[in-house]
Amino acid sequence: MRNIIVGTAGHIDHGKTALVKALTGTDADRLAEEKRRGITIDLGFAHLQLAPDIRLGFIDVPGHERFVRNMLAGAAGIDMVLFVVAANESIKPQTREHFEICRLLGVQTGVIALTKCDLADPELLELARLEVDEFVAGSFLENAPKIAVSSITGQGVAELRHALESAARLVREKAASGWFRLPIDRSFVMKGFGAVVTGTLISGALRPEEEVEVYPIGRRLRVRGLQVYGEPTKRARAGERTAVNLAGIEASEMHRGMVLSEPGRFAAVSILDCRLDLLSSAKPLKNRAPVHFHAGAAEIEAKVQHLDGRSVLKPGESMWSRIVLKEAALVLPGDRFIIRMFSPVITIGGGVVIDISAHPYVPGRLAAMGPEQLVIEAPWGVSREQFIAWTGLRDIPAMPGVEAAGNRLIAHTRVEDLKQQVTAACKAFHREHSLLPGMPKQELKSVVMADAAPEVFEHVVAAAAELTQDGEVVRLKTHRVVLKQDEEQARAAIVAAFGNAGLAAPGVHEVLKTSGVEAARARSILQILLREGRLARISDELVVDAAALGRLRGDLAGKRGQRFSVPIFKEWTGISRKYAIPLLEYLDREHVTKRDGDERIVIG
Predict the structure, then answer these.
(1) Is the sign of the CA dihedral 372, 373, 379, 381 positive or negative?
(2) Are 486 and 456 in contact (CB under 8 A)?
(3) What is the CATH number of domain 485-602?
(4) Which fold has domain 2-168?
(5) Span 294-315, mean pLDDT?
(6) What global pTM score does this model have?
């Protein structure tokens, strides 16, 4: 089923609502005031099963200049336009403004209805047709069918339906596979159900019982029920007019301009960079000029900052601009928007959102903007979640010059630079600490990549061809610990001191002091012996000969199951309590012995 949203556009009292009723049988004027005054004030909705595989949803918008803001709330979701011009009046001010809004919003398809043809003689009808031809020349409506129609007599209604069907088959449907987004254009209470919001599902799909988030307020809610065109449904898809019954919130807490979307997926923003087009009918737009910003169903006060150094944007020109919103909103790259003046409140331009990352602007940046640019600009890469939030993409594309580092994306050139930096840091460390096996990983990270995510650091180190990792240290693959002559002599002296002492080991400080080399090198030699397994660290203060410790473990293996006390252990080993207690605590940790009250059991 192709679900196509059709927006009416045209001047007040040119017959938009009557035409929608003639096509669908539904009176889109829902408010008592609208019926009393005979004009559309707010958005109206109707639908038409035009063909077995095509359903049209009509958004009937107000034509009065005072209600163009309401028109904009519905226009953002339309796929094609039913452009209405009364044959007895032809082009009028709101005809022009609605046309410019559709053009700025990127609408590509439409049908032109010359309404009230029963009130125009053939000459007047032909004149209106010629004026419309001239008005739409060179635009997306240049080749659109122009159907003379009367909502009173029914003339041309069948022909108009046929033209709408042909146009609908040319429309590119909204992406049902994208992230779910529904701009809210109405919020109300339904008796027995609670809060209900409506809108046009512009992407993705939604099901009952799913969790959604209300942007920008950040409330997470459960979908209690769904309707599409007034009928309950188990799945609402992109392109459908959808009513959502929400649990956990009052209708008064939501209003037009908010957006329902994926929970935790995006972030409302107050800064966006864009390509801005100023209408040729507008006045020059000064830098930092205040405007009304319209996107989706939202209307927000904003300021426009020119990014290319110009102080004024002239009518009919385009430029890269930054828009600063007074209130945050959920907008994504590719979204189209409209800007209107404060006084008089008229449409002056619009454009397309390029970037919402708020990165500093540099000349040429936005012209070259692609998803990979966001990664390239981030010195420590971008998480996949942040990348999706900034781009709105559901699937992360293959991007030249970008590589994955765990859950993050980072520029290849940045990885290459970091590889050189960590390699250089390790070389410097080896020069200063030749007796150490390598540089501790955390020290290396703090020196070169303190602000990087751990996964980026691990990725860079693993990718550095000259480096290797040994446990918690990183070293050059070519690095080997080579002792000098005096260091070899010190090594032998340390080994002898501990070897001769057995389990009654001398104090570490005294052994190193008498090793024959200065303290720093002596400590490094001790570490080498510990890594080699020639010595074993029992506690912070006790290091023993590994061979003596091995003999003890062998002796205890022959006593498996025996219970013993500290005095008995002292008899077995011939050592004092000073050594017995830390040794027994070490053996407990190693699961050789197990303490049971004042005694121990040999278990290893």
Answers:
(1) negative
(2) no
(3) 1.10.10.10
(4) Rossmann fold (3.40.50)
(5) 92
(6) 0.77
